[in-house]
Fold this protein.
Amino acid sequence: MRRWALTAVAMAACYRGGSSDESAAAHDDTGGSAGTGADTGEAQGDGAEACTADQLGPAYLRRLTAHEYRGSVETLLGPGLPDVVGAFPDDPVVGGFDNNAEALVIDDRLVERWRDAAETLGAATIGDPDRRALVVGCEPIGDDRAACLEDFARRFGRLAWRHTLDDDELAGLLAVADAAADDDDPWQAIALVIEAALQSPSFVFRVERGDVDPDDPTRVRLRGTEVATRLSMLLLGSTPSAALLDRAEVGELDDADGVEAAARELLADPRARAAMREFYAQWLQLPVLEHVVRDAAEHPQWSETLPATMTEATLALIDAFAWDEAADVRDVLTAPFGFADAELAGLYGVAAPADGLAQIDYGPDDRRGGLLTEASILTLTGKSASGLPIFRGKFLREALLCESLPPPPATVPAIPPAVEGESDRERLERHRTDPACSGCHALLDPAGFGLAEYDAIGAHRTVDSTGAPIDARGSLSGFDGFEFDGPFELAALLHDDPAVSQCLVRQLFRYGAGRRDTEADACTLDGLHQAFDDGGFSMPALIVAFVRSDAFRERPRTEDGP
């Protein structure tokens, strides 16, 4: 099989000519994470004084993430194909998300993996008569060969490249097919078209040319197919369908009302739940659980299957609030129920469900309920028995409050050795008396103390690692009157604090825009939060407000062109 490698692998990173050399943060394998939550080095756009209504933040050329590549291939070629994405290098994590356009660079290794994936997918398609009948719809044999190839190239290219092909694009794919003219297997021409289409920059990059706004020459309105791509990638994790492209090309996505109508239809698609789970999982740093290892001797209830169950249980809890237009998604913090299977129920010390993962209604003595008592959150923040409040405070600050926390300096002193008779809390309090440690730990430790009654895998406990009684009183520095005792008082305070709903708006914006927010996004974020508030903190209301926004449907014009 001939190899059709990408020839254009060095493309501009940003429509406005900028780029970033920031190294992508990576998850460690011990249960913590780096580079998650809020970003460093960029203005957050919180203040009203920074809000300029006619501003738009930057727009970057985005390549497909592994998640988007997998979803697109399934749309194009059907389910049940080899998992070629597993061989791709990991997408870098920046600000908690793996779709940050500034960090999604390409190198020779990734180009080789794209080439190998295209070959595998082309061969798998033509090697399965049922699949090729569904995907191709004709036979490139005899007198029908030319017409079949042209029809397939036109249809497949449109779906893969997310717009109707022009004459040159179609001719290019057909020229690739002609390379197999003398092959004994007539289906090889189809395979070559698939390979070429999947290796094209038009597939692996989300190119947005747009058209200059006649009412504002500083802006570019995205074309209908480009808006369709943004919608489908966000809400379905996939290339847009032929039907959505049809709607785009007749102008149905040219205004906010049309975009909203299409978004609501996509949100009703069963695939939307799986796609949006990508956002929720990354926002809450749940991929970290894949790398967590715990000592079974110290934690007898630990197993290799438990992290996956923890993740699924937390996503099921979010699903219980995220899809109901009338639900307040903040209630995920205070819900009196959760989800568990027999193994997770055993960890929680509650009655196991009859079968599989099921809803569990907690009683007051179960010490469970709400996001903060989920074993997933407690485990991914459970790196150190004596330092649990540090990592849990860090999670609260970053994931739920979008605060920027600088990395510790290289010279920061370690937590001091334990002193006989000293509790874990007293040890950390002594650590904070060191001026080199007090600044950050005054932010982290008191916030994390509220979750001290859970160990490193989320099991409830009444004493700490030294045998001292748990003291779960805490506070949140920087928030007036924010003192609490235990996880439920902490959750209730967070539920009603505007900083938490504002952070969720910011997290969705970062994920949907594929970049960090800047001062230019201040008005957009303010408007989204107002819509979120007006909608009763409904997640569908927030998503709809985002896709209706100018930031979703437009981009700034570049200095040297559209």
